[in-house]
Design goal:
Blueprint: E1 14-15, H1 25-31, H2 41-59, E2 64-69, H3 72-83, E3 89-94, H4 97-108, E4 112-117, H5 126-136, E5 140-144, E6 146-147, E7 152-153, H6 156-165, E8 169-173, E9 192-196, E10 207-212, H7 214-221, H8 234-240, H9 264-280, H10 282-302, E11 318-322, H11 329-340, E12 342-343, E13 345-346, H12 351-356, E14 357-361, H13 369-385, H14 392-406
Parallel strand pairs: 1-12, 3-4, 3-5, 5-8, 8-9
Antiparallel strand pairs: 2-10, 6-7, 9-10, 11-14, 13-14
Amino acid sequence: MSYQHWMRGLDRPILMIPGPTEVPWRVIRAMAQPAMIQYEPPFDEEILEPALLDLRQVFQTSGEVIALPGSGRTGLEAAAVSLVEPGDRVVVVVAGVFGQLMREIMERVGAVVTLVETEWGRPFDLEALERTVAQVRPKILTLVHNETSTGVTYPAAAVGEITRRHGALYLLDTVSSLAGLDVQTDAWGVDVNMTGSQKCLAMPLGLAVVSVSPRAFEAMERRKRRPASYAYDLVRWKKEWVPAARGGGVPEGRRRNQPVSMPTHLSQALLEATRMILEEGLPNRIRRHRIAGKAFRAGLAALKLDLFGEPSLASDTVSCFQTPPGISAKAVVRRMRDAYAILVSTGIGVDRMREGTLRVGTMGMTAGPLYVLPTLSALGMALRDLGAKTDTGAALAAAQGVFDADMP
């Protein structure tokens, strides 16, 4: 049987993957400017500095916020390279692919890593974590706040309490949560908070953004040897770019130097994306993501599709769910893309995730009915095309019911 291919007439599918996500036109227009010179004062004073200062509100921190060329992984590695000396003890919570990534990064910089592992998608034992931290007495504890591989959000505030009680530094991966979920950097005691530009910030891939607490900078400055990386040494930002009035090394009236040349067009995008977040209001943005995630999950339930992870830990920015028996996740992705012009993602990490789970992002501009409802429609129709019995109308009604009840 042949079906109408709704991709016709479009030049690309709508991105409903867990990042990169759709980019608002305002952000695209901000990049459609003549090239700037990255080392001249107008760029620092009119683009980069305002963006990073405004991002303090998004991070909910009074610490420094730094942007680096790269991705979220660049931020993770910059934190590790800047803080860890060979032999330092680090406790890493592993509950999915990105917890495993942090383990590898820490081992590569010479840390002695102790893992606290849990079954993917399931809660971890906070009491067991505290016993491990008390026994190991680590310099650093790391957590992935929102595990993109499983669609599960972990209790970052409770982990922060454990970290503070035992005097460790707290590194938090918020790559798929910052600007979508409530991330309280200072209140949770986070020392380095690491994210990427291409997810809930709703701008193109290409920047890592990190916040650094005074306590973390002090630990970096106490190192016995310089970090092995020149480009990822976060202390160089403090010494060469942060003004003395904020505790940095640049005297009043002296020229600032970016330790790494910043991509000017992406920095312009960062400024505009941050302005959009603050215009919406961070509480409103968090609420919008919460409603969109809830609506999408209601639609999944109506399609009789089960979440991969523990429902009580379900993320509002990334939904990971199981395909019906006998239907390949890869086949669903192809059908949704080719026939209905919406791109979702398979699971990652292990074969059972790639073959049996799908992931959908509700991030930035896609966290709303204009994107959630078409995605549920395409999902229902694609499953029908592949032989499953689905009630797409019920899925749309369930999701719309959430939007009607919760949106003003």
